[in-house]
């Protein structure tokens, strides 16, 4: 890639973040996702930190402005009402729960890791900001350890949207909804239905929202006879990684770190239980039945990101990278459930790939990390800043001018970040 080409892409990516800025927070993309999403926002902060450090802090701070009293940071903050999105604030019914109208579930906690990255970029600006946000990050991690820890010491999700991998086959066998009632989806008015979760998936999503609403989103009440509880590699690896970063920041701030250190040990212990006994890879587990999903997803490769080396996964990664010229797909192309354009059932997502790449480079797998990064570079160069891409032919899918794709370009994929 020539210097001028990537500089043009840097500028384009910056403009996407600026265009998706709604005044101190970004939307993932106009139309399809018109609110502030949790992990999208954390990625946006990381992207902003490459050209506007003040705006980067603002993004994270605006996300934590929506933190509930119990420590949870919701997966969507509804800062305005947009009838073009479903399910909106009137469906979730969380009025009493937090300072800003929101959903009632959370999302993968990448925020502490990006706070650390933003702080490390400029500590003269960052030290005071870090002091303020640190207790909020800690309270959120504590919420995960209190309400989302399985007895295997992994993190479970209480809703497919909580993992951020909405329609992954990882949740297929975990729930049968009944009596959802009539509703109108809005997502399929923005993008083609073949790229979105099926109607059956949506019934499941809605049914769980209705249950939470009935129980007033009270975690104690919701924990009794949960109909959906799946131990998830995305959540477990990401929380472990984020807790390690939190521990580092606690030490820098010279505040008590014992509890955080215990969380790291607990999660580290739990990871091994996610290993599929037949295939050796890390996968999701239905906590109701103890059944392993048997799926190799992009989340199966997050172990290095969490600081865990693994020969078995390295072998599977090598094979996966041989099977396509694009970055890791969200579901193995050999799975009978593989569907190359349907959201989290096959497409490749640059966000997940950036986390895998970061982990690989940190643990010394420079060749693999470089390959993932170069593939991401050419994918974005050829196909643009889409939400995701077909992993075999690169066709862009979902929303366009996507915040987190632009952010990943700026903070990780762009050659402006130098070599590993
Ligand atoms: C959606 O609306 O598709 C979102 O992924 C829910 O978080």
Descriptive overview:
It is a single chain. By secondary structure, the protein is mainly α. The chain is 45% helix and 4% strand. The strands form 3 sheets. Strands 3-4-5-6 form a 4-stranded antiparallel sheet. Strands 1-2 form a two-stranded antiparallel ribbon. A two-stranded antiparallel sheet has the order 7-8. Strand 7 (388-389) and strand 8 (396-397) form a beta hairpin. Helix 12 (350-362) packs antiparallel against helix 13. It is globular and about 55 Å long. It starts with a helix and ends in a 7-residue tail after the last helix. The structure holds (2R)-2,3-dihydroxypropanoic acid. Residues 75, 161, 166, 187 line the site of (2R)-2,3-dihydroxypropanoic acid (DGY).
| Beta-strand content estimate | under 5%
Radius of gyration: 20 Å
Number of H/I helices: 14
Order of strands across the widest beta sheet? 3-4-5-6
* Average of per-residue pLDDT values: 97
Taking pLDDT < 50 over at least 5 consecutive residues as the criterion, the unreliable ranges are: none
Shape: globular
The count of β-strands is 8
Q: Which molecules are bound in this entry?
A: (2R)-2,3-dihydroxypropanoic acid
Backbone structural class:
mainly alpha
Distance, first to last CA: 17 Å
How does the major sheet shape up?
Answer: 4 strands, antiparallel
Helix percent band: 40-55%
Secondary-structure element order, as H and E?
HEHHEHHHEHHEHHEEHHHEEH
